[in-house]
């Protein structure tokens, strides 16, 4: 029987495992971890753009960040970010990814004052601040966390990895970490179907010269459904 690998973090697994028809058959192999970065000074302004649920949680864990966000309107396309940041004023914009929300975001921020902040990973999948500036909206990107690959050296003899199967990938950083793991452990990359959560993850897979399978919708339930279908 082929292996189904789930690659999201250890912290996510208690909730994620409920999405599977048989969680006990899933190999949970976290590929990345998030490391909080020191806060820089933010300029005065009305808006804060947050698109990562993990980034939102890290902000809530930082009392200084919470204090800074009290007087800002938060903009996001992610319903999960909106849930995490429910204690603040959140503007949930239409769209299933950053690029899709940009027309509404540009329109909203043009009516606000000061310099807006885009709070995200050190390497953001989509350059929101640059796009806003190109449209005349003053915005600065402030990295709030760094995504690092987990160390999985020494997995070459794991029988589950020898038979191949399906890998669920939910972010570009997870894709990069997967190919690093494959190289470190001498795995056969041709033995694995790579299922991507959304377009940015799929693009990263293609940059590594592989053909992604993309979830029908950009949510975790759809990712699991597509992966399980690949095994059937």
Automatic annotation (TrEMBL):
SUPFAM superfamilies: HemD-like. GO terms for molecular function: uroporphyrinogen-III synthase activity. Coiled coil: none annotated. InterPro entries: 4pyrrol_syn_uPrphyn_synt_sf (IPR036108), 4pyrrol_synth_uPrphyn_synth (IPR003754). Residues 44-224 form the Tetrapyrrole biosynthesis uroporphyrinogen III synthase domain. It holds the Pfam family HEM4. It comes from the Bacteria. GO terms for biological process: tetrapyrrole biosynthetic process. This is Uroporphyrinogen-III synthase. The lineage of its organism: Bacteria, Pseudomonadati, Bdellovibrionota, Oligoflexia, Oligoflexales.
């Amino acid at each position: 029987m082929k292996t189904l690998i789930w690659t999201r973090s250890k912290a996510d697994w208690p909730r994620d495992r409920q999405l599977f028809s048989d969680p006990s058959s899933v190999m949970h192999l976290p590929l990345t971890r998030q490391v909080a970065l020191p806060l820089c000074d933010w300029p005065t302004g009305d808006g804060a753009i947050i698109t990562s649920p993990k980034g939102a949680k890290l902000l809530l864990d930082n009392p200084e960040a919470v204090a800074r966000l009290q007087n800002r309107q938060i903009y996001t396309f992610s319903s999960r970010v909106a849930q995490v940041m429910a204690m603040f004023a959140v503007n949930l914009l239409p769209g299933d990814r950053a690029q899709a929300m940009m027309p509404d975001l540009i329109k909203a921020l043009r009516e606000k004052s000061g310099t807006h902040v885009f709070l995200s990973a050190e390497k953001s999948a989509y350059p929101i601040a640059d796009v806003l500036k190109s449209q005349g909206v003053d915005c600065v990107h402030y990295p709030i966390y760094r995504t690092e690959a987990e160390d999985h050296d020494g997995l070459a003899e794991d029988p589950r990895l020898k038979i191949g199967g399906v890998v669920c990938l939910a972010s570009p950083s997870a894709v990069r970490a997967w190919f690093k793991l494959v190289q470190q452990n001498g795995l056969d990359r041709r033995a694995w179907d790579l299922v991507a959560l959304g377009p940015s993850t799929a693009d990263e897979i293609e940059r590594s010269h592989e053909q992604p399978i993309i979830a029908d919708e950009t949510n975790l339930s759809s990712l699991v459904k597509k992966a399980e279908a690949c095994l059937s």
